[in-house]
Specification:
The chain has 6 helices and 14 strands. By secondary structure, it is of the alpha+beta class.
Length: about 230
């Protein structure tokens, strides 16, 4: 009954779809996980902020997810609210500089889409993401990498949502990127990332990406995967 009341309160105050007792198996790459009490997909920053405020008012735990990769959810589910940063956070914009470009992408943008965008525009620097599942927010939070590089290498800045509802921009020099991690001193939600890319040759980019994908397909198992489960010693 409480979950239904909470869901109704969220519907009235947040521009989003709200589901009650939603199976997390529908939202993870491994297709496992019990029900979340409340599951929402905000359609923008305002909706996300309102949802967080409601969670704090109701003393409701919340957890942020993207595309559900690198995520194991218990069969018991999640007692609280799961917030999916996906469809409402999918914009990509470009700002041209003298000898490079700044590409800003919101946290719900899939890495595969970002890679295709960069390739089609002839921007080099994002090739490392070939074959990595998931969204940009998760890639930043985990400092996603392959042998071609890491997302930390091209990051210019990020925008985060603080617990008080304020949006803060953090430049690369103030970010604590580590192996498979981005460490914050307080609880934040990553809203977007801005990346430094260079102009390159589209044909050469395509070949480099395709060759790397063939190598990955030949060395990694097929089927459902949680992504990078193990750390490289």
């Amino acid at each position: 009954m409480r979950n239904e009341c909470l869901a109704e309160k969220i519907r009235k105050n947040v521009n989003c779809e709200v589901k009650v007792d939603e199976p997390m198996s529908q939202h993870t790459s491994l297709r496992i996980g019990g029900p979340a009490d409340i599951f929402i997909s905000p359609r923008g920053v305002d909706g996300l902020t309102n949802a967080i405020m409601i969670a704090q008012e109701e003393q409701l735990k919340y957890h942020i997810i993207g595309n559900g990769t690198n995520l194991l959810v218990s069969d018991e589910g999640f007692k609280g609210m799961v917030i999916q940063m996906k469809d409402g956070f999918g914009r990509i914009t470009v700002k041209e500089k003298a000898d490079y470009v700044l590409v800003k992408a919101e946290s719900g943008v899939r890495l595969s889409r970002m890679l295709t965008f960069a390739k089609e525009h002839g921007f080099t620097g994002f090739e490392f993401a070939a074959g990595i599942p998931g969204t940009l927010g998760g890639a930043l939070a985990m400092n996603a990498s392959t042998k071609l590089g890491a997302i930390a290498d091209i990051t210019h800045s990020i925008e985060v949502l603080l617990k008080n509802g304020r949006i803060k921009k953090i430049k690369k020099d103030d970010l604590d990127f580590r192996y498979r991690d981005l460490v914050f001193q307080q609880s934040v939600i990553i809203l977007s990332g801005c990346f430094v890319l260079r102009h390159g040759n589209r044909e050469e980019l395509t070949k480099k990406i395709n060759d790397f994908l063939v190598e990955r397909q030949g060395s990694q198992p097929k089927g459902r995967s949680a992504g990078c489960v193990f750390k490289n010693p």
